[in-house]
Write a structure and sequence with these properties.
The complex is a heterodimer of chains A (about 325) and B (about 625). With about 325 residues, chain A is of the alpha/beta class. Helix content of chain A is about 30%, strand content about 20%. Chain B has 3 domains: about 220 residues, Pyruvate-ferredoxin Oxidoreductase, domain 3; about 190 residues, Thiamin diphosphate (ThDP)-binding fold, Pyr/PP domains (Rossmann fold, 3-Layer(aba) Sandwich), CATH 3.40.50.970; about 110 residues, Rossmann fold (3-Layer(aba) Sandwich). The chains are: A alpha/beta (about 325), B alpha/beta (about 625).
């Protein structure tokens, strides 16, 4: 990227000329705005951004970004992004997806892109419902969900996206919320910085079909009690008065009240690199008795797919010499007539 | 080396089929014989046929693997209908292949394997080598296992190793019978088993034992020779279809100045293409084994959007999975090549057996009006030119192209005239370098190709996708009239390609009783059948279509010059349907769906039948 003269961009450089057509009040607007604010701050020339999506409300995203963009087909964005990244590893590739797109029809691509660890970023707009198709429960909807396709309540257990990502070998797993603008900005920057597949689950409100799904995490009065803001190296305390924390009891996490029995020294310190802790934190997403972790849940450094592939290409050219068609065609027994 | 006291009998052509258990090494034996035959300067065509199971239960009919070769002093296009020689290493192989052996043909059998157990497994009530059930043939039944065992006597090898070397004995014997040298096989053995000298020694001894057996035993009275065939001058090598496809792709990438991005998912009989291309990393070919068929083509679309020559290969079931993605390539007008190495269907069908029943799938197997260019290769060597042509059309017209090959071409081989690299045409692309005036949907008048501006190029930021686009701006559009215009535009992009295609020029008679119209791997059989019909005085022509969508420009008028149109296909009449629908002609089909190539005889018979009516 060093060959480009540094040009300063601002948010408006990343706004495309297309009218944004999400429902008024949709959480997607807030996310779009944060992404448009963050991109100019990343030090990447504008032409090197590629935003790829599948199908769904969130997947309209590329049309609104004045970058290279591809609105592909349902669930397949990670696969398209894979080819793009292999073709040109220099690009900053962002996959925008929804819970139906990535957890259901595109589940296979989702786990495999994480496993392979391409240096790209996946933003999952999780609103726990199918919006574009008008209100069916999704693979992240809670069991018992009443929706157009489940009038008697769903009998379907949900996926826990960070846990799934962790199981798939994800190397950067984080969570943020559409309404937490500065937190989201920070996470997006960290996702970009991570060399490997960065997975960011963004809780996003669909006020038409699933309004208030994350109200307990976003309402001013209670959110301090329900959000666990993760900070590397800091004890996991939460609550309006920072008077609660997570403690490790045996192999399980426990919420404890700070004061008489426990002090902050008893509280588990967040270590992004600790996979077991990442696992325990991921588990909390579905547990009403615990706060919901927000921030970087897990992070690990390992070589990316494209780095290893390009190493092989270079090694082959070095050892065998640059491919020569004549030599290739004549590489078996030949005879002259 | 051969005993000159034996007489020499020169013939025009010979068909040999090596058959045995799938673990008997028949493919290797056939390939070695093929190389020795290529060195002799004969024209040749081969056809390997093997079960889908890697090691089906030993001795059973399901486990029989075979390799057929026809070699000739004339130009031939098929591995032959009737066998002159059937090498049957076990009774199951004899059972499944005997019907193809011509009367008085030679059977070479390894007696040691005709045990009670094997006879029972393969459904023989009595040992056919010992009763008169093979009286119409010349039977050479040898205990190859014992003969090899004698040859390696002091080497102290296990019986397993000895019986594994019997294929080399059979190869040595057949090599003597048809005057092939052993040198290339000896070199091959030395390389293959370089780390295990005892195997080198055992295999070479077995090979020579077979050769010397022919030379010394009186049962063999003469050597059969086949003169060199006449070839167009040049340098040749033997090539199998899948390899030729890969060479065509690599050559096209070089001529277009692009890198290859290839993604595939393992599927028979297309996997070789992934294997072969992944070995050529020094050509900077980026290969990707995807998690599924859909991911393979979607990643190709991503790579093509970023400026690579994108290719994926699959077979019918995978093609079905790729349908939606191929539609996206149509909608976004990106150049990519999809190779479909057809096998029998529906569903899993018979994975290792050939068929050409995916033509209509290639043309119509997507939602909406979603036309793509469709090409078909007609012989193993022709796979090279067809792959090259597919890349050329894709890049010059900014359009997806489907190439149809099949299991028969994929693994079959023939001599290939190695092209001069400098004589291959340059391929033009629509990559745009300067942002000034760039518009992703600005079209070139001649080809209607849109501009290809790739990520990383300053000032070309744009979005594409599967939603309908405004014909001028490329923005998302739900306008009804615009949608219809776009539909016509996508069709027109196909139609105008016909303008630059060479007109069809029938082989044989330019008008007359019968025009045989074929496509794909039936080329050789049709050509020989047409030759045969003409030799007996009939006016017959042959058109073999490489371009199936669009058709060549003068196809319709050509059809009108003949009284009968015959369309032989390994399907239930797919090209037939297209020709009837498009040209309103009363064409007849010859349809065979047995997982086997069409034979010369049956096509010839059908021609005669049509003329008779």
């Amino acid at each position: 990227m060093g060959d480009q003269q540094t040009v300063t961009f601002s948010k408006k450089d990343f706004v495309s000329d297309q009218d944004v057509r999400w429902c008024p009040g949709c959480g997607d607007y807030a996310i779009l705005s944060q992404v448009q604010k963050v991109f100019p701050q990343l030090g990447v020339p504008k032409e090197k951004f590629l935003v790829v999506s599948g199908i769904g409300c969130s997947s309209r995203f590329p049309y609104y970004m004045n970058t290279f963009g591809f609105h592909s087909i349902h669930g397949r964005a990670p696969a398209l992004a894979t080819g793009a990244k292999i073709a040109n590893p220099d690009l900053s590739v962002w996959v925008v997806t929804g819970d139906g797109d990535s957890m259901s029809i595109g589940g296979n691509h989702f786990i495999h892109v994480l496993r392979r660890n391409f240096d790209l970023n996946i933003l999952l707009f999780n609103n726990q419902v199918y919006g574009l198709t008008k209100g069916q429960y999704s693979p992240t909807s809670e069991i018992g969900k009443i929706s157009n396709s489940t009038p008697f309540g769903s009998v379907d257990y949900p996926f826990n996206p960070p846990l799934l990502a962790l199981g798939a070998g994800g190397t950067f797993i984080a969570r943020s919320i559409d309404r937490e603008q500065s937190h989201l900005q920070g996470i997006l920057k960290e996702a970009h910085k991570h060399e490997g597949t960065s997975f960011v689950e963004i809780y996003q409100n669909c006020w038409v079909f699933n309004d208030g799904a994350f109200a307990s995490l976003t309402e001013r009065e209670i959110k301090m009690e329900t959000q666990l803001i993760l900070e590397q190296g800091k004890p996991m305390v939460f609550g309006k008065n920072k008077d609660k924390g997570l403690r490790l009891k045996g192999s399980k996490l426990q919420v404890v009240q700070l004061g008489k029995k426990y002090s902050v020294d008893d509280i588990l310190v967040h270590d992004e690199k600790n996979k077991i802790q990442g696992l325990l934190l991921s588990e909390l997403s579905c547990d009403k008795n615990f706060p919901t972790p927000i921030g970087i849940i897990y992070q690990e450094d390992k070589p990316t797919y494209e780095t290893m592939l390009y190493n092989q290409l270079e090694k082959a050219v070095k050892s065998k010499g640059k491919g020569n068609l004549d030599k290739l065609f004549n590489d078996s027994h030949t005879w002259k007539v | 080396m051969a005993d000159k006291s034996k007489s020499i009998n020169n013939v025009d052509r010979v068909v040999i089929r090596f058959t045995g258990d799938s673990g008997d090494g028949m493919q290797l034996t056939g390939n070695r014989f093929t190389e020795a035959t290529a060195i002799m300067g004969n024209d040749l065509a081969t056809f390997p046929d093997y079960p889908a199971e890697i090691r089906a239960p030993a001795g059973t009919l399901a486990g029989v693997s075979s390799f057929q070769i026809q070699f000739s002093s004339e130009n031939i296009g098929t591995p032959g209908d009737e066998l002159d020689v059937l090498v049957a290493m076990n009774p199951a192989a004899l059972k499944t292949n005997l019907e193809d052996l011509k009367t008085s043909g030679i059977i070479i059998a390894n007696k040691a394997n005709y045990t009670d157990k094997n006879l029972k497994l393969s459904g023989w009530k009595l040992n056919p080598l010992e009763d008169d059930s093979l009286k119409d043939y010349r039977v050479i039944a040898l205990d190859m296992t014992r003969l090899v065992s004698n040859a390696v006597e002091e080497m102290d090898l296990s019986i397993k190793l000895i019986s594994r070397s019997t294929n080399m004995f059979a190869l040595g014997l057949v090599s003597w019978m048809y005057d092939r040298t052993l040198d290339s096989t000896i070199n091959f053995i030395k390389n293959k088993f370089a780390k295990r000298p005892e195997l080198v020694e055992a295999n070479i001894r077995a090979l020579k034992a077979g050769y010397n057996y022919g030379d010394t035993i009186e049962e063999f009275q003469h050597i059969v020779t086949v003169s060199k065939a006449e070839f167009e001058p040049g340098v040749y090598r033997n090539i199998v279809g899948n390899q030729a496809l890969c060479f065509g792709l690599i050559a096209a990438a070089e001529k277009a100045g692009l890198d290859i991005y290839f993604a595939g998912y393992p599927i028979t009989p297309a996997s070789d293409i992934l294997h072969i291309l992944s070995g050529y990393k020094n050509f900077r070919i980026k290969t990707f084994q995807a998690e599924d068929e859909i991911a393979a083509i979607m990643s190709v679309i991503g790579a093509v959007f970023c400026g690579d020559l994108g290719i994926t290969a699959t077979s019918g079931p995978g093609m079905a999975l790729k349908g939606e993605s191929l539609g996206l390539a149509v909608a976004t007008e990106l150049p990519l090549v999809v190779l479909n190495i057809q096998r029998t269907g529906p569903s899993t069908g018979m994975p290792t057996k050939t068929e050409q029943a995916d033509l209509l799938q290639a043309l119509f197997g997507r939602n909406g009006e979603s036309p793509v260019v469709v090409l078909a290769a007609n012989s193993p060597a022709d796979c090279f030119s067809t792959a090259f042509e597919a890349c050329r059309i894709a890049l010059e017209y900014m359009i997806p192209v489907v190439v149809l090959s099949d299991a028969f071409l994929a693994h079959g081989s023939e001599p290939w005239l190695i092209p001069q690299i400098k004589n291959l045409p340059k391929i033009r692309t629509h990559l745009v370098e300067k942002a000034n005036g760039f518009n992703p949907f600005k079209r070139e008048e001649k080809t209607l190709a849109r501009q290809w501006g790739i990520p990383g190029t300053k000032g070309m930021e744009h979005r594409v996708g599967g939603l309908e686009k405004d014909i001028e701006t490329g923005d998302v559009s739900y306008d009804p009239i615009n949608h219809e215009k776009m539909m016509y535009l996508r069709q027109q992009k196909i139609d105008i390609i016909a303008n630059e295609l060479p007109p069809v020029d029938p082989f044989g008679d330019k008008s007359g009783k019968v025009l045989v119209v074929g496509w794909g791997s039936s080329f050789g059989s049709i050509r020989e059948a047409v030759n045969r019909s003409r030799k007996v005085g009939h006016t017959v022509g042959h058109v073999h279509l490489r371009h199936l969508n669009p058709f060549p420009p003068n196809l319709g008028e050509t059809l009108l010059k003949y009284q009968n149109i015959l369309v032989p296909e390994m399907n239930n009449g797919q090209l037939l349907l297209l020709l009837r629908g498009k040209f309103l002609i009363d064409a007849s089909g010859l349809n065979k769906v047995q997982g086997k190539p069409l034979g010369v005889d049956e096509i010839h018979d059908k021609i005669i039948e049509l003329i008779g009516t």
